[in-house]
Design brief:
Layout lengths: L5 H46 L4 H47 L5 H46 L1
Helix pairs in contact: 1-2, 2-3
Length: 154
Amino acid sequence: MLFLSLSQLIPILQTAIGPVILISGVGLILLTMTNRLAQTVSRIRNLNDNLVSATTPGRMKVLAQIQVLLRRARLIRLAISLAAASALAVSVLIIVLFFMTLWHIEIAWVIALMFMISMICLILSLIVFIYDINQSLVALQLELSHNELSESDV
């Protein structure tokens, strides 16, 4: 049973193809999230450099922006972790599918459980990511409203 013919191996590989496509999609989502995290971290570093030359009122504004960005960075990190857990669950699912097909074992609940874990992690990741996007818009609106107030005071 360790040595399979090509005609026996092809259906096994075909069974594993579906979840591989899912990994590809999750990988693209991870790429987007890691780019967003990199931009957030870069913005935090730039603001941190500005703290040195900031006056007291400006310093408070920069510190507030850094706090908002740190919260967002934590959200993005959580979203990335959940998406990576989804990809990991799919990878385990592929191995389980492969061995179950190879050894003619049928334990459907294991496959269903691994798929559900993967989907739950992916859904939670996307929810956190959407929440981060909303938070970035809220922070932008606050910053713009502060700027309008500052200009009207002058």
